[in-house]
UniProtKB/TrEMBL annotation:
Domain of life the protein comes from: Eukaryota
Alphabetical list of PANTHER family matching this protein: OS06G0237300 PROTEIN
Organism: Neogobius melanostomus (round goby)
Keywords: LIM domain, Metal-binding, Zinc
Metal-binding in keyword set: yes
Transmembrane segments: none
MF terms (GO), sorted A to Z: metal ion binding
Segments forming domain LIM zinc-binding: 1-49
Listed name of the protein: LIM zinc-binding domain-containing protein
InterPro entries linked: Znf_LIM (IPR001781)
Length: 81
């Protein structure tokens, strides 16, 4: 079996395909995000749908994790107010 090794993972050559369109990928036409593989066309297209890498790929925005809110006041936990 032939294998492709990239992003600290190994794939069967037949499994190295775009998550969105299932097109077979090569080392020259792929992009990876959160361990998922995409062809460069769909990687760019999914980014453009929301304008960021999180929402475009079905995740919540990472900046929402920056501010932890207190469950009693609704204010940021690290505020001095």
């Amino acid at each position: 079996m032939e294998r492709v090794t990239t992003d600290k993972a190994s794939f069967h050559k037949t499994c190295f395909c775009c998550k969105h369109c299932k097109k077979k990928l090569s080392m020259l036409n792929y992009a990876s995000l959160y361990g998922e593989l995409y062809c460069t066309f769909h990687y760019q297209q999914l980014f453009r749908t929301k304008g960021n890498y999180d929402e475009g790929f079905g995740f919540s925005q990472h900046k929402s994790r920056w501010t932890v809110r207190s469950s009693t006041t609704g204010a940021p936990a690290d505020s001095d107010a």
